[in-house]
Known about the structure:
The protein is an all-alpha fold. The protein is built from 9 helices and no strands.
Amino acid sequence: MFTxxxxxxxxxxxxxxxxxxxxxAVLRVCLGIMIVHNGLDKLADIPSFAEAYVKVIGLPFPxxxxxxxxxxxxxxxxxxxIGFLTRPAAFGLFGTMCVAMYHHILVAxxxxxxxxxxxxxxxxxxxxxxxxxGLFSTDALILNWLDSNALSAKAKQVMxxxxxxxxxxxxxxxxxxxxxxx
Length: 182
C-alpha cells in the first residue's frame, strides 16, 4: 500500500519528447526560483502581512496562517525547482495562490491587473499538481530507483539523452579534429 501510494505520488506524465520534457523542467525551475521571494517577503514582516492580507479575508489566527503561507512558499518553491515531492509542493503553492486570488477579488474585485500574477502562478502550480514534474526531475530518478518498470523504455531513453548527446558531441569533435589533421 505505502509503496503503491509512493509510486503514484512520484509518477509523472511521461510524454517522452525531449523538448517537451526540457520545457517542463525549465518552467518548473523558473517557477521555483521566482516564488521564493514571496515567502521571504512574508517572513520579513509577519505582523504586517497578517494584518494587511490574512485578517482582510477573515481567516482566524492570522499570524499562524501568515507563517503557513511563508513556509509553504519557502519550502515548496525549492522542492518544485528540483522536482522533489513535486505534486505536494505544487499543491501547497497552488493553495497559497488561490488564497491570494481570493484576497485580490475581495480588495479590487475582478480586476485583471490584481489577479494576473497570482492567476498565472496558480495555473502553473495546478499543472504540476496534476502532471507531476516530468522526466528531468528528482522524483523521476527516485521512481526509477524504486520500481525499474515504472517508466517506459522510451522515457528512460529520454532521461539518458543528455549523456548520449554529450558523448555524440565528443565523438563529432574527435572526428573534426582528425579530419583537420589530415
